[in-house]
Amino acid sequence: MSAKVVAVAGATGVVGRQMLETLEARDFPVARLKPLASERSKGKKVPFKGEMIDVEVLSDDSFDDVDIALFSAGGGTSKRFAPSAAKAGAVVVDNSSAWRMDPEVPLVVPEVNPEAIAKHNGIIANPNCSTIQMVVVLKPLHDAARIRRVVVSTYQAVSGAGIAAITELQEQTKALLEGREYPPKEFPHQIAFNIIPQIPQSDAFVDNGYTTEEMKMVNETKKILGDDNVAVTATTTRVPVITGHSESVNVETERKLTADEARALLAKAPGVVVEDDPAAQRYPLATTAAGKGETFVGRIREDVSHPSALDMWIVSDNLLKGAALNAVQIAEKLF
What we know:
Layout: E1 4-9, H1 14-25, E2 30-37, E3 45-48, E4 51-54, E5 56-57, E6 68-71, H2 75-87, E7 91-94, E8 123-125, H3 129-145, E9 147-156, H4 163-177, E10 196-197, H5 212-225, E11 231-238, E12 245-253, H6 259-267, E13 272-274, H7 286-289, E14 295-302, E15 309-316, H8 320-334
Parallel strand pairs: 1-2, 1-6, 2-5, 6-7, 7-8, 9-11, 13-14
Antiparallel strand pairs: 3-4, 9-12, 10-11, 12-15, 14-15
């Protein structure tokens, strides 16, 4: 692969910083890096390959010489600037929800549907973090036995809501342990020592009673798997964990899969690590998945309430495979 000019929009945010680290860690051939952010970040620098690089203010003119633009600056920013980047000749990989369900924009997890990358018209969407880790595990099961229905409950880390959310969890936990009050700011309710529906201030319940986060998982799973016949229902929650999303997933298949069959399939699946020895207290944990690029699956067992269903526990680093790593993997496949 020849060296590329790479722009990272939202370079000073949690995921933007992780994108820079991932580009460096995977030795992506960067001829020149253009860190981009809002006016608030003017004058800041970001580290990359031993240098401190000036952050430029994101504008319509930021992409004239860019080959690929990794966006992690929010849906409104992506809607505003991604078309400008594509028009200038860059390929955009966008981490927001802005383009995911656009029928003209491929929604890609490289281990699942890499062929979709070729269908891009200048913009490729990175799926929701919770959807990514789930479909990496679902894909080999779907290919082997056709999935009919998925029931998922998520336990999502606060880092998915940004730096301010991490700070709130840390400071609120400290305050409550010291007997002080700490009113919630980034979340609608206290997050320390609590579990709340996954509704940051920018999210909302929709008319059917689901949250927008839950409907992302429903709709994105169907699009990525390329199968509208897969029924999906989701309950998404935010938990007092800094990094690493966990999921309880029940999968009903057309052909019965035994737990041993599922373990064998998943052990060979790209990007998946099977950790499944409960007798030895070995199963996926957010604390051990943090900092790793794989998706971990365990507690694989046959559903005692259904003759053709499996239960499992899936964990992944939401900032890596759930965001930055998946975007960089798309860029690698693209070129």
